[in-house]
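Structure, all two chains, one model.
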Amino acid sequence: MSTAHKKLYLHEVATRDGFQNEARFVDTDAKIALINRLSQCGFAKIEVTSFTSPKAIPALRDAEAVMQQITRVPGVIYTVLVPNLRGAERALLSGVDEVNLVMSVSESHNRTNLRMTREQSFAQLGDVAALVRQTEVAINVSLSTAMGCPMEGDVPAAEVLGWMGRFADLGVHGITLCDTTGMAFPSQVGELCRKANAAFPQLELTLHFHNTRGMALANTLAALDAGIDRFDASLGGLGGCPYAPGATGNVCTEELVHMLELDGYDSGVDLAAVLDAATLLPDLIGHDVPSQLLKAGRRLDLHPMPATAGDGIPEQRAFAQQGA
Amino acid sequence: MSTAHKKLYLHEVATRDGFQNEARFVDTDAKIALINRLSQCGFAKIEVTSFTSPKAIPALRDAEAVMQQITRVPGVIYTVLVPNLRGAERALLSGVDEVNLVMSVSESHNRTNLRMTREQSFAQLGDVAALVRQTEVAINVSLSTAMGCPMEGDVPAAEVLGWMGRFADLGVHGITLCDTTGMAFPSQVGELCRKANAAFPQLELTLHFHNTRGMALANTLAALDAGIDRFDASLGGLGGCPYAPGATGNVCTEELVHMLELDGYDSGVDLAAVLDAATLLPDLIGHDVPSQLLKAGRRLDLHPMPATAGDGIPEQRAFAQQGA
């Protein structure tokens, strides 16, 4: 099955899922400048910020200012995370294209992360959906821990499909299956994506991977094989995981785009522009980023032959390095 | 196509491909102790060391002592890298099960890494093969830069197959296709593996990936899909790449085993034992290792619910973290 030129849709989430995990506050102007650069890169969607309590996530306390001051590029969907009715009202006033609601598929993670039972979350998000449906704004739901819960372990696919069904009944446009703490593995991803696509063909389905255990790109391959064409990713691989100190974050945008381009997909994203943007991150957040591609360069960023390369003169042979 | 319980063969290369890249000399006793632990982990093969010039690779200047003093476990193949006739003589005296010859598929990399033209390398390795064929010792050939050269760029599959054919004619038992600087991508890997398997069904074919651009596990999936059942990997992800300072190294053994086990393969390797061994590395080499799994733990190494998890009491909701 050829993948040549298959069109994909990439969503950049670094300024939300990335920055919310950073200790250092990124200046509002710097956020806006970064998002303006990202708007030129060819993403289908940018998750700009989160309209949550400034007490809960001080890193994103400037949500209104950022959302209102970015330069919006026609064709790019500007979405924001919204946890509740108050957040939705703020988001709608800021002129978002989409609200991204969130709850966890596992009870333990929902209670830990959102401090509510899942039923309480669902009721609250139902109120949000009812409000937003009165507008032109689209509704996406991100289902956290859809491929594993750090407290409960396996999350049955039936449970994921059940919650998808309940949100589909609320009239949402899309659902994102989130591997919140990097517990997904390829065969699981393939199976879940096939089931979800078959059960809800009317929903835009997005996959959201974290690279916590190194499998984000392998899981992406499995999702692609199952027909998925929408992926969240984070510039520089920002993201992190509160359960794994020092662990890497979301799947890295530039590494995802690099692989997809090599494999012949049309991601729509300009890899050189993304790499340029990623170089800004260490100064903004005050530390190195997980991105390997930023260190190694693209596959065909070639290196000169060193002046010491041998020409077959015997005495040079003794110094061979013999790596494989 | 079910992969359930398919038998795979994993080769641990950290004490060769990993240690040769380290600035700090790992004490001979520590090397022996680590290899003895690795011998208990279920690997099909362990690349113990390299019989090269101590001037070229001082980190492995104790090749004889290590090879002769390890406790060999029946069933495990103990192999060593051998660059030339002198190295082969030393290896045979040390009682190895296999010699692993090496040359690059690309002329520029061969001249840089081995200080010879490819034809000079091939002639020299022909002499080595002639010597080793007089013994019971097996011969493997590692073909470097088989999926890309950091100086030349793309390496045509036909070039790889051509060199495989010349070594097959020398009577070698196996060939390892090495993605020396992490330039391979999934669709390329699948195509090359299918061609190589079809052309040389009599050869044991091994894939050797580096994670330089984050694709090592994705490339492994592609190789598995193409029927490959042998993989090199390096404990902790040791390895590195001289062309990408700070970049990650070989595919990480524990991350590879973890993914393969989750996907239902029978790797033969005890993941808990491998993780235990990997915890020793930072002290041995004096720095952190690329392994993400060592930081994050296995997928089902679960975490307790924090005491602060909400039970739905409204005032707690304000502090929700709302990550996805």
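Residues 107 and 118 of chain B are 6 Å apart (CA to CA).
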